[in-house]
User: Fold these one by one.
Assistant:
Number 1:
Amino acid sequence: MTLMPLKLVPKLRGGTSLWIGGGLVALAVFVAVAAPLIARTDPVMDANLMNAEIPPGWEFPFGTDAQGRDIYSRIVYGARISLTVGIGSQILNSLIGVSLGLTAGYWGGWWDDFVTGLTNLMLAIPSLIFALAIMAILGPGLTSLLAALGLTAWSYSCRIARAQVLSLKSQGYIQAARILGYGDLRIMFTQVLPNILGPLIVIATLGMGTAILSEAALSFLGLGIRPPFPSWGSMLSEARDQINTVPWLSIFPGVAIFLTVLGLNLLGDGLRDILDPQSTTRRS
Amino acid sequence: MILVLARRLANVVPTLVAVIALVFLLFSVLPGSFISGMGEDGRTTIDPAVMERMRKEMGLDDPLPERFAKYIAHTAVGDLGKSFRTREPVTYLIGQRIWPSLKLMFAAMAFAIAVGVTLGFLAALRPGSLVDTVSMVAAISGLSLSQFWFGLMLMYLFALTLHWLPSFGYGDGGIRHLILPAIALGVGPMALLARTTRAAVLDVLNADFVRTARAKGMSERRVVEWHVLRNALVLVITIIGLQFGSLMGQAVVVEKLFAWPGVGSLLIDSVFQRDMPAVQGCILLIVLFFLAINTLVDIAYVAIDPRIRYGR
């Protein structure tokens, strides 16, 4: 990998997007972690009808909703839900994808055929529709969301892990490990996995953005997180009917989603230029 | 060519069967939880008698293999069952919705191609320029937008504030109602196409045959028209096809937002009305559409580019 010629232009582009993306993601993580410290009110309980539908201003930077709740505080707490869904679902996807991909590529045979077939099946179903079907069955909630988004998008990491193992299997150090008497699993996880972490991290970063968008879409449809909990998607779902009279309800949660996902996408692109120099800037 | 076609179709059959089986498993093996799960959201409760009747009606007390065989047999002849709500065949309900859905998808794709391919192409011809930077910022922003929020903002700006376009609904089926939902749906594919086109054109610009064409004194304009565009288009057309296949699934959210009477809003309404045959039918349709388009794209790929051959 290190022998690949480094192209100067993409390198520089990767540099800026890495920093901007990293900054946006760091901001989102900070907001989520520090939510109780930087929020001004409780996102669910602090309703005050005297303060209903106040436009953004000095007292309420993002305005208030129909129940008089501070939109800024709700968005701050909403970061927790979005990031939990994003990170949690990608950990699940990566675990499933990497385990299946590593073992399929390493062992081959009927297990490889089975995993490849399963991957093709997963790829044959649009992921939002798959998640929607699971949410329709399990009902709304955070646990269902993690299941719906964490069990349906592992085919990308699985494919990459499998392809990389196939190309690494014949390398000298893997042969050496085998001669030393390492077990299959030990070779897979201590010799192969560290060498393919780069592309997998890129996939997971971009996948987090997709998961956050899917959570927002499902919550908007009423199948994800339900009101009164302050998920950005569910806030938008409540705000839609009042867009004509209380437009700020719709603007700020959407901006929060956009900046977080933009950060993850830029970070993913930037990381790819560093960690995975073989790939172009294409994205599937 | 016929051989390629046959091989590709033979490959798709197992996936097709697996997909149908999965949809069956998801909704027919777990319908108890589907029905009660929808009741547990606290909005409504279901009368146990109704649940019992639904179970009977759906033949849920029959043995599983028997139900699966029945389901396969019915699906194979295009019978998706009757809607719980309207008592009409699901195929009839979907038939009413399919044309608005397709119309929206074509309009969204037209927007995505017109804007995305142009941006990507201009960006690739002058890498590092202002045009390139602006196009790529637009593209990554488009990929980071939540479609329904973008749609909501379009609605607020162009319908509610400026009063240029109707805010939602199908209207008389004219183009005015189509514009906003089409842009909201098309922005994702647009962004992807801009990036793909840029990458594809850059790849081709660095190819040996382009250098040869330049070296033999061909004008830059002719090089681009003759060699670059044609070769880059193979990849771009593939992406257009794949995007189109997944568009029916993506349209669910936009259709719901704009109250567009397509398959997507039928699906969501059916989920909330616990109209299981309709939910199952819509999901099956969306998945089969995706699969069919992907297969067509694969076949077209071979037809367009003689260098690609299936099988080793």
Number 2:
Amino acid sequence: MTAAVDSTPAVSQAPAPVPSAASRIWGVVRIQYLNRYTFVGIPLIILAAAVVVSIAIYAMIGADSPMYGGAVQAPLWYFVGAGVQAMGLTFPFAQALTATRREFFLGTALAALLAASGLSLVVVLLGYLEQATNGYGINGYISRLPWLWEQGGAVAGLLYLSFTLLVFFVGFWMATLYRRGGALVVTLAAIGLGVLVVGTLFVITRFELWGDVVRVFAEAGPLGVTGVLCVLVALAALAGWLTLRRSTP
Amino acid sequence: MTAVIDVAHLTKTFKDVTAVDDLTLQVEENSITGLLGRNGSGKTTTMSILTAQDFPTTGTVRVFGEDPLENARVLSRLCFVRESQKYPDDFTAGHALRAAAMFFPRWDEAFARTLVADLRLPLTTRIKKLSRGQLSAVGVVIGLASRAEITFFDEPYLGLDAVARSLFYERLLQDYADHPRTIILSSHLIDEIADLIENVLLIDDGRLLLHESTDALRGRAVTLTGDAETVSHVIGTREILHRESLGRVASVTVMGTLTAAEADEAHRLGLEHSPVPLQQLIVRLSQRDQRSARSATQTTEKAAS
């Protein structure tokens, strides 16, 4: 009879299983929400303040015909800052946590999509509230604007969502450019975008196309404009990703 | 032994600065390596490239046999908190540790709690408001509690007081014994980590000067102190790394060891011979390298003129 040979257990630990890509991307989303002020608290505070101030102004005016204001866009612009922060500060930390650039980009885009969707939903609910209360009882409207709601609350929400995302990705891209090339590159990019906008305005004015432009927007309706915005969102996101691919923390 | 890090002819240039210059090295699994060098010698850049936070200009990097770039399979087994680590705005140390717990598959929460208590790290203060030492402590806790298979510590002692520093070294050794892994510790406080590191990786100006086990390195030089003439007699033709003299007494550091007979003779002649502290040895060796580099340039210049 031969003595049984004990198999010696390996001293070193077996490598831990690699977490799935989905769980690592979701990890980035959770990091973006660990501090809830950035994506949830601050936009809601800005929105609440905009609503309160608008109602106060409407109450002071006290007109009989409906009053419309654009204060609802205030929290939307904050998403430039959210985009800048997500890139400028969270990216280096995500790198320390070994997230790849791809995981960081997808997780951050998903986090922004969730935040912008939530904000858009609140704005749409506010619109229905205005509808139900005849403009807070004083005939004043912030969210429920005539052209925007032409095709219903859902379309108005989508338009709001796509615009918020566009603003976010432009901020994200600018912050990524800053990381890659410093203030000069950002300035040049901003000037480039500015020239593009002014150039377009010049061409429209020079060839007296304003009537056509207004007609195009009127015909496209909120849904058509949302479609155009979605294309711009995709372009800004793509620009952000291409710049991020070679970024270092 | 298997090499978990394999770097071949790695070069990294930033505009007109060469941060890493033709670096070739391997790091064995389950070892503690000191990555030593002066400020700006390329330590952080090298670690950034190994962890795919930065890109090589030329050369290849293999970690666990694979290119780490955008490779979650490799990256999920690493941990690198840099000395100047940035955190999301308004994050507290508590937020940072919760995020780390989500990402590092081997994270040990109980260990993290103990370290936080030991290092007296406030968890609810915003990181922006932490002192330099507390900021380092965040990195130390993440680095240790992640138990990553390769963990990089980038000058983790900055701003830590003496108690916290020795606590860090103690915990590191203890946890390394319980959970063997590969640790790379960048530092310029060489003597403080001399007893901790098994291997020395010395880089200067982006180039590898030395890659040796600490024990072998210690045996490479010896210091003799005593009567100047007697010292000269005993060292013979050995290469002198450093000489200090005060009156007739000289203290000379030379390359090589003394044979038993020589040691006896030195003792008989009233000389004191002592091992060279690691830090001194490394300083002398880097100075020697600079001297030889200088004389090489001078020779070429002379030849050219």
